[in-house]
Amino acid sequence: MVSYGRLIDRQRSFFASEATKELSYRIDALRRLKAGIQKHERQLINALKADLNKSEFEAYSTEIGIVLEEISFTLRHLRAWAKPRKVKTPITHFGTRGYIYSEPYGSALILAPWNYPFQLAAAPLIGAIAAGNCAVLKPSELTPRTSETIGEIIRTSFQEDYISVVQGGIETSEALLAEKFDYIFFTGSVPVGKIVMIAAAKHLTPVTLELGGKSPCIVHEDANLKLAARRIAWGKFMNAGQTCVAPDYIYVHQSVKDRFLSELESAVKELYGERPLLNPDYTRIVGRKHFDRLGAFLGNGTLAFGGGTDPERLTIEPTVLTDIGWEDPVMQEEIFGPVLPVLEYRHLSEAISRIRNQPRPLALYLFTESNSVQEEVRESVSFGGGCINDTVYHIVSPYLPFGGVGSSGMGAYHGQASFDTFSHSKSVMKQTTWFDLPFRYPNRKNGLKSIKRFLK
Protein backbone atom coordinates (compact mmCIF):
# COMPACT_ATOMS: atom_id res chain seq x y z
CA MET A 1 0.00 0.00 0.00
CA VAL A 2 1.33 3.42 -0.97
CA SER A 3 2.04 5.72 1.96
CA TYR A 4 1.05 9.36 1.81
CA GLY A 5 2.81 10.23 5.04
CA ARG A 6 5.42 12.43 3.36
CA LEU A 7 2.75 14.50 1.60
CA ILE A 8 0.87 15.02 4.84
CA ASP A 9 4.12 15.89 6.65
CA ARG A 10 4.81 18.57 4.06
CA GLN A 11 1.33 19.96 4.53
CA ARG A 12 1.80 19.98 8.29
CA SER A 13 5.05 21.89 7.89
CA PHE A 14 3.40 24.43 5.62
CA PHE A 15 0.45 24.78 7.97
CA ALA A 16 2.88 25.33 10.85
CA SER A 17 4.27 28.34 8.97
CA GLU A 18 0.86 29.94 9.70
CA ALA A 19 0.63 31.33 6.16
CA THR A 20 -2.85 29.85 5.72
CA LYS A 21 -4.11 31.62 8.84
CA GLU A 22 -3.65 34.99 7.20
CA LEU A 23 -7.01 36.18 5.91
CA SER A 24 -5.38 37.75 2.86
CA TYR A 25 -3.84 34.39 1.96
CA ARG A 26 -7.20 32.62 2.12
CA ILE A 27 -8.89 35.30 0.03
CA ASP A 28 -6.14 35.09 -2.58
CA ALA A 29 -6.43 31.28 -2.61
CA LEU A 30 -10.18 31.43 -3.22
CA ARG A 31 -9.64 33.89 -6.05
CA ARG A 32 -7.01 31.59 -7.56
CA LEU A 33 -9.41 28.66 -7.32
CA LYS A 34 -12.13 30.65 -9.04
CA ALA A 35 -9.76 31.77 -11.79
CA GLY A 36 -8.58 28.19 -12.29
CA ILE A 37 -12.14 26.92 -12.64
CA GLN A 38 -13.02 29.65 -15.11
CA LYS A 39 -9.89 28.93 -17.13
CA HIS A 40 -10.78 25.23 -17.33
CA GLU A 41 -14.54 25.70 -17.76
CA ARG A 42 -14.70 24.22 -21.25
CA GLN A 43 -12.44 21.35 -20.22
CA LEU A 44 -14.72 20.61 -17.27
CA ILE A 45 -17.82 20.65 -19.46
CA ASN A 46 -16.17 18.24 -21.89
CA ALA A 47 -15.04 15.99 -19.04
CA LEU A 48 -18.51 15.81 -17.51
CA LYS A 49 -19.91 14.99 -20.94
CA ALA A 50 -17.37 12.20 -21.37
CA ASP A 51 -17.89 10.73 -17.90
CA LEU A 52 -21.67 11.02 -17.46
CA ASN A 53 -22.99 12.47 -20.75
CA LYS A 54 -24.05 15.62 -18.88
CA SER A 55 -25.40 18.37 -21.08
CA GLU A 56 -23.64 21.72 -21.06
CA PHE A 57 -26.67 23.22 -19.30
CA GLU A 58 -26.63 20.61 -16.54
CA ALA A 59 -22.84 20.66 -16.23
CA TYR A 60 -22.79 24.41 -15.69
CA SER A 61 -25.94 24.78 -13.57
CA THR A 62 -25.37 21.82 -11.22
CA GLU A 63 -21.57 21.65 -11.15
CA ILE A 64 -19.58 24.66 -12.31
CA GLY A 65 -21.90 27.63 -11.79
CA ILE A 66 -22.97 26.56 -8.31
CA VAL A 67 -19.32 26.30 -7.25
CA LEU A 68 -18.39 29.70 -8.71
CA GLU A 69 -21.31 31.27 -6.85
CA GLU A 70 -20.25 29.54 -3.62
CA ILE A 71 -16.76 31.05 -3.97
CA SER A 72 -18.21 34.50 -4.65
CA PHE A 73 -20.50 34.23 -1.63
CA THR A 74 -17.60 33.13 0.58
CA LEU A 75 -15.40 35.99 -0.61
CA ARG A 76 -18.14 38.49 0.22
CA HIS A 77 -18.61 37.20 3.76
CA LEU A 78 -15.30 35.67 4.83
CA ARG A 79 -13.99 38.71 6.71
CA ALA A 80 -17.10 38.79 8.88
CA TRP A 81 -17.04 35.03 9.52
CA ALA A 82 -13.38 35.07 10.53
CA LYS A 83 -13.71 37.86 13.11
CA PRO A 84 -13.50 36.84 16.78
CA ARG A 85 -16.94 36.85 18.36
CA LYS A 86 -17.41 38.52 21.71
CA VAL A 87 -19.96 36.73 23.88
CA LYS A 88 -21.77 37.62 27.08
CA THR A 89 -20.51 36.54 30.48
CA PRO A 90 -22.60 35.53 33.51
CA ILE A 91 -22.63 37.45 36.76
CA THR A 92 -20.36 34.80 38.29
CA HIS A 93 -17.69 35.98 35.81
CA PHE A 94 -17.94 39.67 36.65
CA GLY A 95 -14.88 41.46 35.31
CA THR A 96 -14.24 39.02 32.46
CA ARG A 97 -14.75 39.09 28.71
CA GLY A 98 -15.46 36.03 26.59
CA TYR A 99 -14.42 35.46 22.98
CA ILE A 100 -14.75 32.71 20.40
CA TYR A 101 -11.97 32.43 17.84
CA SER A 102 -12.34 30.33 14.68
CA GLU A 103 -9.13 28.49 13.94
CA PRO A 104 -8.33 25.92 11.22
CA TYR A 105 -7.82 22.26 12.08
CA GLY A 106 -4.71 21.73 9.95
CA SER A 107 -4.66 19.25 7.08
CA ALA A 108 -8.08 18.09 5.84
CA LEU A 109 -8.89 15.03 3.74
CA ILE A 110 -11.79 15.46 1.29
CA LEU A 111 -13.17 12.28 -0.27
CA ALA A 112 -15.48 13.13 -3.18
CA PRO A 113 -18.11 11.01 -4.99
CA TRP A 114 -18.82 10.38 -8.67
CA ASN A 115 -22.39 11.64 -9.11
CA TYR A 116 -21.50 15.34 -9.07
CA PRO A 117 -17.77 14.79 -9.40
CA PHE A 118 -16.74 18.42 -9.65
CA GLN A 119 -19.26 20.18 -7.41
CA LEU A 120 -18.97 17.73 -4.52
CA ALA A 121 -15.18 17.93 -4.61
CA ALA A 122 -14.88 21.71 -4.94
CA ALA A 123 -17.64 22.80 -2.53
CA PRO A 124 -16.07 21.35 0.63
CA LEU A 125 -12.65 22.51 -0.58
CA ILE A 126 -13.98 26.09 -0.54
CA GLY A 127 -14.81 25.69 3.14
CA ALA A 128 -11.43 24.15 3.93
CA ILE A 129 -9.58 27.02 2.24
CA ALA A 130 -11.81 29.70 3.77
CA ALA A 131 -11.18 28.34 7.26
CA GLY A 132 -7.40 28.32 6.71
CA ASN A 133 -6.66 24.61 6.28
CA CYS A 134 -4.40 22.68 3.97
CA ALA A 135 -6.19 19.92 2.09
CA VAL A 136 -5.76 16.63 0.26
CA LEU A 137 -8.54 16.03 -2.25
CA LYS A 138 -9.38 12.54 -3.51
CA PRO A 139 -11.81 12.69 -6.47
CA SER A 140 -13.70 9.65 -7.75
CA GLU A 141 -12.02 7.11 -9.99
CA LEU A 142 -15.41 6.39 -11.62
CA THR A 143 -15.34 9.76 -13.39
CA PRO A 144 -11.73 9.81 -14.61
CA ARG A 145 -11.90 12.72 -17.07
CA THR A 146 -13.41 15.05 -14.47
CA SER A 147 -10.96 13.86 -11.82
CA GLU A 148 -8.04 14.56 -14.15
CA THR A 149 -9.36 18.07 -14.80
CA ILE A 150 -9.75 18.70 -11.07
CA GLY A 151 -6.15 17.61 -10.63
CA GLU A 152 -5.00 20.01 -13.34
CA ILE A 153 -6.94 22.94 -11.82
CA ILE A 154 -5.43 22.34 -8.38
CA ARG A 155 -1.92 21.61 -9.66
CA THR A 156 -1.78 24.83 -11.68
CA SER A 157 -3.33 26.94 -8.92
CA PHE A 158 -1.65 25.80 -5.70
CA GLN A 159 1.55 24.36 -4.32
CA GLU A 160 1.30 20.70 -3.34
CA ASP A 161 2.11 21.27 0.32
CA TYR A 162 -0.98 23.50 0.53
CA ILE A 163 -3.65 21.84 -1.66
CA SER A 164 -3.04 18.50 -3.32
CA VAL A 165 -5.08 16.06 -5.43
CA VAL A 166 -4.48 12.32 -5.14
CA GLN A 167 -5.88 10.09 -7.88
CA GLY A 168 -6.75 6.41 -7.52
CA GLY A 169 -9.32 3.84 -6.56
CA ILE A 170 -10.35 2.07 -3.37
CA GLU A 171 -6.78 1.22 -2.42
CA THR A 172 -5.85 4.90 -2.58
CA SER A 173 -8.76 5.85 -0.32
CA GLU A 174 -7.76 3.14 2.13
CA ALA A 175 -4.15 4.36 2.15
CA LEU A 176 -5.24 7.95 2.77
CA LEU A 177 -7.59 6.90 5.57
CA ALA A 178 -4.72 5.05 7.24
CA GLU A 179 -2.93 8.39 7.70
CA LYS A 180 -3.64 10.85 10.48
CA PHE A 181 -5.46 13.89 9.15
CA ASP A 182 -6.84 16.71 11.27
CA TYR A 183 -10.28 16.58 9.62
CA ILE A 184 -12.06 14.25 7.19
CA PHE A 185 -14.93 15.28 4.92
CA PHE A 186 -16.63 12.40 3.11
CA THR A 187 -19.49 12.37 0.61
CA GLY A 188 -20.84 9.01 -0.49
CA SER A 189 -22.80 5.94 0.52
CA VAL A 190 -23.77 4.84 4.01
CA PRO A 191 -21.65 1.62 3.95
CA VAL A 192 -18.51 3.51 2.92
CA GLY A 193 -19.34 6.25 5.42
CA LYS A 194 -19.14 3.65 8.19
CA ILE A 195 -15.69 2.61 6.95
CA VAL A 196 -14.55 6.23 6.96
CA MET A 197 -15.82 6.73 10.49
CA ILE A 198 -14.04 3.62 11.75
CA ALA A 199 -10.78 4.83 10.19
CA ALA A 200 -11.24 8.30 11.67
CA ALA A 201 -11.92 6.83 15.12
CA LYS A 202 -8.45 5.25 15.21
CA HIS A 203 -6.93 8.74 15.25
CA LEU A 204 -9.87 10.49 16.97
CA THR A 205 -10.21 12.59 13.82
CA PRO A 206 -13.39 14.68 13.54
CA VAL A 207 -15.51 13.93 10.48
CA THR A 208 -18.32 15.26 8.35
CA LEU A 209 -20.30 12.53 6.61
CA GLU A 210 -22.59 13.53 3.75
CA LEU A 211 -24.49 10.33 3.01
CA GLY A 212 -27.95 9.73 1.61
CA GLY A 213 -30.92 7.45 2.14
CA LYS A 214 -34.45 7.17 0.87
CA SER A 215 -35.71 10.75 0.73
CA PRO A 216 -39.53 10.83 0.67
CA CYS A 217 -41.79 13.17 -1.26
CA ILE A 218 -45.37 13.68 -0.09
CA VAL A 219 -48.02 14.98 -2.49
CA HIS A 220 -51.06 15.95 -0.47
CA GLU A 221 -54.59 16.16 -1.82
CA ASP A 222 -54.55 19.98 -2.04
CA ALA A 223 -51.25 20.21 -3.93
CA ASN A 224 -50.86 22.10 -7.20
CA LEU A 225 -50.46 18.87 -9.15
CA LYS A 226 -49.13 20.28 -12.40
CA LEU A 227 -46.45 22.32 -10.65
CA ALA A 228 -45.65 19.49 -8.24
CA ALA A 229 -45.20 17.05 -11.12
CA ARG A 230 -42.82 19.37 -12.98
CA ARG A 231 -40.71 20.11 -9.91
CA ILE A 232 -40.59 16.46 -8.87
CA ALA A 233 -39.62 15.35 -12.38
CA TRP A 234 -36.87 17.98 -12.41
CA GLY A 235 -35.51 17.02 -9.00
CA LYS A 236 -35.76 13.27 -9.51
CA PHE A 237 -34.53 12.80 -13.06
CA MET A 238 -31.75 15.38 -13.33
CA ASN A 239 -28.42 13.57 -13.55
CA ALA A 240 -30.52 10.43 -14.27
CA GLY A 241 -31.58 10.33 -10.64
CA GLN A 242 -28.01 10.02 -9.40
CA THR A 243 -28.49 12.73 -6.78
CA CYS A 244 -28.26 12.13 -3.03
CA VAL A 245 -31.19 14.48 -2.33
CA ALA A 246 -33.39 13.33 -5.22
CA PRO A 247 -36.91 12.24 -4.23
CA ASP A 248 -36.46 8.51 -3.69
CA TYR A 249 -40.15 7.64 -3.53
CA ILE A 250 -43.48 9.45 -3.56
CA TYR A 251 -46.38 9.20 -1.15
CA VAL A 252 -49.41 10.64 -2.98
CA HIS A 253 -52.90 11.08 -1.58
CA GLN A 254 -55.21 8.40 -2.95
CA SER A 255 -57.75 10.93 -4.22
CA VAL A 256 -55.29 12.65 -6.57
CA LYS A 257 -53.01 9.76 -7.50
CA ASP A 258 -54.26 9.20 -11.06
CA ARG A 259 -54.27 12.91 -11.92
CA PHE A 260 -50.81 13.31 -10.46
CA LEU A 261 -49.40 10.39 -12.44
CA SER A 262 -50.81 11.85 -15.64
CA GLU A 263 -49.21 15.22 -14.88
CA LEU A 264 -45.91 13.53 -13.97
CA GLU A 265 -45.77 11.68 -17.28
CA SER A 266 -46.47 14.92 -19.15
CA ALA A 267 -43.73 16.70 -17.18
CA VAL A 268 -41.17 14.02 -18.02
CA LYS A 269 -42.00 14.27 -21.72
CA GLU A 270 -41.75 18.05 -21.51
CA LEU A 271 -38.28 17.85 -19.94
CA TYR A 272 -36.76 14.91 -21.84
CA GLY A 273 -38.89 14.35 -24.94
CA GLU A 274 -41.10 11.51 -26.05
CA ARG A 275 -38.10 9.17 -26.28
CA PRO A 276 -35.57 10.09 -23.59
CA LEU A 277 -33.16 7.33 -24.64
CA LEU A 278 -32.65 9.20 -27.91
CA ASN A 279 -32.09 12.53 -26.17
CA PRO A 280 -28.38 13.29 -26.73
CA ASP A 281 -28.24 15.28 -23.48
CA TYR A 282 -29.82 12.67 -21.22
CA THR A 283 -27.36 11.66 -18.50
CA ARG A 284 -26.20 8.04 -18.39
CA ILE A 285 -25.63 5.70 -15.45
CA VAL A 286 -22.06 5.88 -14.21
CA GLY A 287 -21.15 2.21 -14.77
CA ARG A 288 -22.35 -1.32 -15.58
CA LYS A 289 -22.64 -2.37 -11.93
CA HIS A 290 -25.03 0.48 -11.12
CA PHE A 291 -26.92 -0.01 -14.40
CA ASP A 292 -27.55 -3.69 -13.63
CA ARG A 293 -28.61 -2.90 -10.05
CA LEU A 294 -31.15 -0.33 -11.26
CA GLY A 295 -32.37 -2.60 -14.03
CA ALA A 296 -33.36 -5.20 -11.46
CA PHE A 297 -35.86 -2.72 -9.96
CA LEU A 298 -37.80 -2.34 -13.19
CA GLY A 299 -39.75 -5.54 -12.56
CA ASN A 300 -41.10 -4.34 -9.22
CA GLY A 301 -44.78 -3.43 -8.97
CA THR A 302 -46.57 -2.09 -12.06
CA LEU A 303 -44.86 -0.01 -14.73
CA ALA A 304 -46.75 3.30 -14.98
CA PHE A 305 -44.48 4.68 -17.71
CA GLY A 306 -40.88 4.54 -18.85
CA GLY A 307 -38.87 1.38 -18.27
CA GLY A 308 -36.84 1.47 -21.48
CA THR A 309 -33.10 0.83 -21.30
CA ASP A 310 -30.05 1.04 -23.56
CA PRO A 311 -27.37 -1.29 -22.16
CA GLU A 312 -24.74 -0.10 -24.66
CA ARG A 313 -25.12 3.56 -23.65
CA LEU A 314 -25.90 2.71 -19.99
CA THR A 315 -29.11 4.74 -20.03
CA ILE A 316 -32.45 4.08 -18.35
CA GLU A 317 -35.59 6.06 -19.13
CA PRO A 318 -37.26 8.10 -16.41
CA THR A 319 -39.40 5.34 -14.93
CA VAL A 320 -42.35 5.43 -12.55
CA LEU A 321 -43.58 2.32 -10.71
CA THR A 322 -46.93 1.89 -8.95
CA ASP A 323 -48.48 -0.88 -6.81
CA ILE A 324 -45.30 -0.81 -4.74
CA GLY A 325 -45.04 -2.14 -1.18
CA TRP A 326 -42.34 -1.71 1.44
CA GLU A 327 -41.35 -5.34 0.95
CA ASP A 328 -40.33 -4.74 -2.68
CA PRO A 329 -36.56 -4.63 -3.41
CA VAL A 330 -36.86 -1.08 -4.78
CA MET A 331 -37.88 0.06 -1.28
CA GLN A 332 -35.04 -1.72 0.52
CA GLU A 333 -32.20 0.64 -0.45
CA GLU A 334 -31.54 4.11 -1.82
CA ILE A 335 -32.37 3.94 -5.53
CA PHE A 336 -29.90 6.52 -6.85
CA GLY A 337 -31.19 6.33 -10.39
CA PRO A 338 -34.13 7.29 -12.66
CA VAL A 339 -36.62 4.89 -11.06
CA LEU A 340 -39.41 6.41 -8.97
CA PRO A 341 -41.82 4.26 -6.91
CA VAL A 342 -45.20 5.80 -6.10
CA LEU A 343 -47.13 4.75 -3.01
CA GLU A 344 -50.50 6.09 -1.89
CA TYR A 345 -52.12 7.04 1.41
CA ARG A 346 -55.58 7.92 2.66
CA HIS A 347 -54.65 9.77 5.83
CA LEU A 348 -51.53 11.87 6.30
CA SER A 349 -50.81 10.07 9.56
CA GLU A 350 -50.29 6.83 7.59
CA ALA A 351 -47.55 8.36 5.45
CA ILE A 352 -45.90 10.06 8.41
CA SER A 353 -45.89 6.83 10.42
CA ARG A 354 -44.31 4.87 7.58
CA ILE A 355 -41.64 7.49 6.95
CA ARG A 356 -40.80 7.70 10.66
CA ASN A 357 -40.27 3.94 10.77
CA GLN A 358 -37.45 4.24 8.23
CA PRO A 359 -33.90 5.57 8.81
CA ARG A 360 -33.89 9.36 8.93
CA PRO A 361 -33.54 10.67 5.35
CA LEU A 362 -31.21 13.31 3.97
CA ALA A 363 -34.15 15.23 2.48
CA LEU A 364 -37.92 15.43 2.61
CA TYR A 365 -40.27 17.16 0.16
CA LEU A 366 -43.88 18.12 0.74
CA PHE A 367 -46.40 19.53 -1.70
CA THR A 368 -49.42 21.15 -0.05
CA GLU A 369 -51.11 24.53 0.31
CA SER A 370 -52.04 23.86 3.94
CA ASN A 371 -49.93 25.53 6.63
CA SER A 372 -51.18 23.05 9.22
CA VAL A 373 -50.09 20.10 7.08
CA GLN A 374 -46.70 21.72 6.55
CA GLU A 375 -46.22 22.15 10.29
CA GLU A 376 -47.44 18.64 11.08
CA VAL A 377 -44.93 17.03 8.72
CA ARG A 378 -42.08 19.32 9.74
CA GLU A 379 -42.59 18.65 13.44
CA SER A 380 -43.28 14.92 13.10
CA VAL A 381 -40.47 13.78 10.81
CA SER A 382 -36.71 14.11 11.33
CA PHE A 383 -34.71 14.77 8.14
CA GLY A 384 -31.57 16.60 7.08
CA GLY A 385 -33.26 19.37 5.09
CA GLY A 386 -35.86 19.80 2.43
CA CYS A 387 -38.44 21.87 0.60
CA ILE A 388 -42.11 22.67 0.78
CA ASN A 389 -43.61 22.81 -2.72
CA ASP A 390 -40.28 22.14 -4.40
CA THR A 391 -37.48 19.56 -4.58
CA VAL A 392 -33.67 19.74 -4.31
CA TYR A 393 -33.59 23.55 -4.59
CA HIS A 394 -32.77 24.05 -0.91
CA ILE A 395 -29.19 22.86 -1.41
CA VAL A 396 -28.49 25.78 -3.74
CA SER A 397 -29.00 28.43 -1.05
CA PRO A 398 -25.72 29.37 0.70
CA TYR A 399 -27.76 30.59 3.66
CA LEU A 400 -29.11 27.09 4.41
CA PRO A 401 -26.72 24.53 5.95
CA PHE A 402 -26.81 21.26 4.04
CA GLY A 403 -26.30 17.96 5.82
CA GLY A 404 -27.90 14.79 7.09
CA VAL A 405 -29.09 13.42 10.40
CA GLY A 406 -28.67 9.92 11.80
CA SER A 407 -27.88 7.43 9.05
CA SER A 408 -28.08 10.14 6.38
CA GLY A 409 -24.98 11.84 7.74
CA MET A 410 -23.51 14.20 10.30
CA GLY A 411 -22.28 17.76 10.02
CA ALA A 412 -23.27 20.36 7.44
CA TYR A 413 -21.78 22.73 4.88
CA HIS A 414 -22.53 25.43 2.29
CA GLY A 415 -22.02 29.12 3.01
CA GLN A 416 -21.00 29.92 6.56
CA ALA A 417 -21.70 26.32 7.56
CA SER A 418 -18.71 25.28 5.40
CA PHE A 419 -16.46 27.76 7.19
CA ASP A 420 -17.74 26.56 10.57
CA THR A 421 -17.33 22.89 9.64
CA PHE A 422 -13.64 23.30 8.87
CA SER A 423 -13.01 25.56 11.89
CA HIS A 424 -12.49 24.77 15.55
CA SER A 425 -14.26 27.25 17.83
CA LYS A 426 -11.63 28.19 20.40
CA SER A 427 -13.08 29.72 23.56
CA VAL A 428 -11.00 32.30 25.43
CA MET A 429 -11.88 34.15 28.63
CA LYS A 430 -9.97 37.33 29.49
CA GLN A 431 -9.91 37.98 33.23
CA THR A 432 -9.38 41.30 34.90
CA THR A 433 -6.44 41.88 37.25
CA TRP A 434 -7.94 45.00 38.85
CA PHE A 435 -9.72 42.97 41.51
CA ASP A 436 -10.29 39.39 42.58
CA LEU A 437 -13.64 37.92 43.62
CA PRO A 438 -12.89 36.05 46.85
CA PHE A 439 -15.97 33.83 47.10
CA ARG A 440 -14.58 31.18 44.77
CA TYR A 441 -11.70 30.28 47.10
CA PRO A 442 -12.12 27.51 49.70
CA ASN A 443 -10.62 29.55 52.58
CA ARG A 444 -13.28 32.25 52.26
CA LYS A 445 -15.38 32.62 55.40
CA ASN A 446 -18.94 31.56 54.65
CA GLY A 447 -17.67 30.58 51.20
CA LEU A 448 -20.28 27.89 50.64
CA LYS A 449 -23.06 30.29 51.52
CA SER A 450 -21.68 32.85 49.06
CA ILE A 451 -21.30 30.25 46.31
CA LYS A 452 -24.91 29.13 46.75
CA ARG A 453 -26.11 32.68 46.28
CA PHE A 454 -24.60 32.73 42.78
CA LEU A 455 -24.85 29.08 41.68
CA LYS A 456 -28.45 28.00 41.96
UniProtKB/TrEMBL annotation:
Single GO MF annotation: aldehyde dehydrogenase (NAD+) activity
UniProt domain Aldehyde dehydrogenase: residue ranges: 19-428
Keyword match Oxidoreductase: yes
Keyword Iron listed: no
This protein's UniProt keywords: NAD, Oxidoreductase
Domain of life of the source: Bacteria
Gene3D superfamilies reported for this sequence: Aldehyde Dehydrogenase, Chain A, domain 1, Aldehyde Dehydrogenase, Chain A, domain 2
GO biological process: aldehyde metabolic process
Gene Ontology CC, one term: cytoplasm
Active site: E210, C244
UniProt family annotation: Belongs to the aldehyde dehydrogenase family.
Protein name: Aldehyde dehydrogenase
Organism: Paenibacillus sophorae
